[in-house]
Predict the 3D structure of the following.
Amino acid sequence: MEVLRARGLPVAATCGGARSCATCHVYVHGGYGSVGAPDEDELDLLTESEHYRAGASRLSCQIQLQPQTGRLQVELAPQD
Ligand code: FES
């Protein structure tokens, strides 16, 4: 989420990364392979969205980039 915002993308992130707003919802292209699947609490929030996509949706504030993550392609999800 911070990387997206630093690049000027319109990520509201109104809760500041506290995992309560879902305004940082993204689709990770290529599935969860490089970043892992959401945990239960994140998944609960994501599945409340009409734009939820199984196998792609993540809250960008919960994605921790690591040196081994490599190139990551994400798409901003529409806001509910
Ligand atoms: S910034 Fe609110 S859930 Fe990610």
